[in-house]
Design brief:
The protein is of the alpha/beta class and 294 residues long. It has ten helices and eight strands. The protein has a single domain, classed as Thiamin diphosphate (ThDP)-binding fold, Pyr/PP domains (Rossmann fold, 3-Layer(aba) Sandwich), CATH 3.40.50.970.
């Protein structure tokens, strides 16, 4: 396990330039994943921002990469896993999919892969919207945020993917992660790699374009997301939940929401609902810390 940033490998599986936005959280997350898993990896990608990284005849990857439609990445990755097993090939099979391709359009094939305990790592990189097609609302869009399809404050609560996955497969390795804490994230990828069966990591990735902030603040925005409790870090192993941090004192959501243009029109009602959601979810996680999650 990695103890500090100094121990992170300097070898990059991604080389050259990409078409990703400057300061892209999705790209930072994928680089971290490949530093852990190496070249012996097949990245499976549904329609999403990361689709633009590898377009024939150009690719920044020194590993295998496959792209298919929005709705079928769970089944695609499962098929690849079974094909490799039949050939006696030991290879990491990883889905790297956005929140739209995971929590919404891709939910049916993801659910089946989880239920069947397929030996794959599914990473949901969550930028709270359909980022590649203009920034539309998804079921992971944060309460109070505005999107291209919900112009004023979104009043919905984000779908709880960890609870859904834990209910679908109690034996799965499940974790949340944040690109602003790469050591924690990479150690969770390592655990997923060593777990026999289905693993799910929910990764929050600040989005310069759709969260609306300057490119140099990606890491800072990610840390603010954690400090106010909007996206807490934890993992579930053998059904037991463990918080990755103590979260003794949360910042008010004001500092986080004021750092992003997507909250520019947030209403007092929406901000109260967001703060209540944060407090209630954190209270539930603390109450279940060290206990069976579902």
């Amino acid at each position: 396990m990695i103890k500090s940033i100094k121990e992170i490998s300097t070898t990059d599986i991604m080389v050259g330039g990409t078409s990703a936005c400057s300061g892209c959280g999705m790209l930072i997350g994928l680089k971290c994943v490949l530093k852990v898993l190496g070249e012996n990896t097949c990245i499976c990608n549904p329609a999403s921002c990361s689709t633009l990284l590898s377009m024939f005849p150009h690719s920044p990857f020194n590993c295998s990469w496959i792209h298919t439609a929005f709705e079928c990445m769970g089944s695609t990755a499962s098929g690849i896993r079974h094909s490799l097993d039949a050939q006696g090939k030991d290879m990491n099979v990883v889905v790297y999919a956005g929140d739209g391709g995971t929590a919404d359009i891709g939910m049916q094939s993801l659910s089946h892969a989880a239920y069947c305990d397929e030996d794959i790592i599914y990473i949901e990189y969550d930028n709270n919207c359909y980022g590649n097609t203009g920034g539309q609302w998804s079921s992971q869009t944060m309460t109070g945020a505005s999107t291209k399809t919900k112009i004023n404050s979104n009043m919905d609560i984000p779908k709880n993917m960890e609870k859904i996955m834990a209910s679908t497969n109690p034996n799965a390795y499940i974790a949340t992660a944040n690109i602003s804490y790469p050591v924690d994230f990479m150690n969770k990828v390592e655990k997923a790699k060593n777990h026999k069966g289905f693993s799910f990591i929910h990764l929050i990735v600040p989005c310069v374009t759709n969260w609306i902030f300057e490119t140099q603040y990606t890491i800072e925005i990610g840390k603010l997301t954690d400090k106010c409790g909007a996206f807490p870090l934890f993992e579930i192993e053998n059904r037991i939940l463990t918080l990755s941090k103590k979260y003794d004192k949360l910042e008010h959501v004001d500092k986080w929401t004021s750092s992003q243009g997507r909250f520019k029109t947030i209403t007092p009602e929406a901000k109260d609902k967001l703060q209540t959601f944060v407090y209630e979810r954190m209270a539930e996680l603390k109450e279940r810390n060290g206990k069976v999650f579902v």
